[in-house]
């Protein structure tokens, strides 16, 4: 009995030391279902990945034959087409949605003689452009971009900040300022109308941002760019005649006197001639589609055209105030049409076309937008 007990104890001890995997191996393959159990079948239609539907908003300005703004139209008076496919207008508004406005002002030494007039525009910005529910921010730029005033609804602060702008250095990073303004507006609530007001010359000297990239982002973020073009020629004429030397016969950086026949003046003269003669709408589409770095002297005009805004050249002090007044009138008479993209080709450039029920009226809207893969 003692030997039997010892033998049983030894056997149990050895069995406990054997790993479980060695004691029982699972049969290969899936386990067969139990008798009478219902076998689960794979789904007939596998789950599909759905493309996110994008909301598109386009501002529309309507004028009559005399150029007067028309404020009496309603939703049925508009038809909107996206890549020639008519869209259902989901939302319709006339100047009612609150504004988010970024004001970007060049303060470089290139426009120093014009800065006294620019500093007086604060009250025009608050009274003509910003409504009672608007919020605004202020940027100034020369060879860098600086935020002078963050977003807020205090109009007095905007007026004081504009009046206190200081002259900067000689550079002009216009495209970087556009990129900064568009980025700030992109973060604002989507129900607000987003406007970037730029007061600057068109030349860009050293920006890292590309104009085409900025405009593509502005279109996707429903940002409208309005520009008031400062003139370096006007600034030059206001300087002391003894300090400025002989009066130039052409804009800075150009060659108004023809060179010898058959000899190019500069490596970029051919491209400048293309920019000068091209249609602004075509330039806007080209800049957005190709992510162009610049559009030369047309940069501000192209930025406004690509986003549904306007460009106003300002040679005199009064023309700056007039331009701001006209911009304010448009913003408060602006129709906004919102729709969800429908159609087969979602990616690439989308052309927007707005038609009116009344043929005696003319409309202006942004030409389109670009959706990357």
Tell me what you see in this structure.
The protein is of the alpha/beta class and 373 residues long. It has two domains: 52-95 and 338-373, no CATH class; 96-237 and 270-332, Rossmann fold, CATH 3.40.50. 32% of the residues lie in helices and 24% in strands. It is built from 13 helices and 14 strands. The chain has helices at 2-17, 20-23, 115-119, 122-129, 155-163, 174-186, 211-220, 232-238, 241-244, 269-277, 280-290, 299-307, 317-331; strands at 55-63, 78-82, 85-87, 89-94, 99-106, 135-141, 145-152, 193-200, 223-230, 311-314, 335-340, 348-356, 362-365, 368-371. The strands form three sheets. The chain has a six-stranded mixed beta sheet, sandwiched between helices. It has a four-stranded antiparallel beta sheet with strand order 4-11-1-13, with no helix packed on it. The N and C termini lie far apart (84 Å). The relative contact order is 0.19. Residues 1-30, 42-53, 241-249 and 253-275 have low confidence and may be disordered.
Structure summary:
The chain is of the alpha/beta class and 373 residues long.
Secondary structure topology:
Elements: H1 2-17, H2 20-23, E1 55-63, E2 78-82, E3 85-87, E4 89-94, E5 99-106, H3 115-119, H4 122-129, E6 135-141, E7 145-152, H5 155-163, H6 174-186, E8 193-200, H7 211-220, E9 223-230, H8 232-238, H9 241-244, H10 269-277, H11 280-290, H12 299-307, E10 311-314, H13 317-331, E11 335-340, E12 348-356, E13 362-365, E14 368-371
Parallel strand pairs: 5-6, 5-8, 8-9, 9-10
Antiparallel strand pairs: 1-11, 1-13, 2-3, 2-12, 4-11, 6-7, 12-14
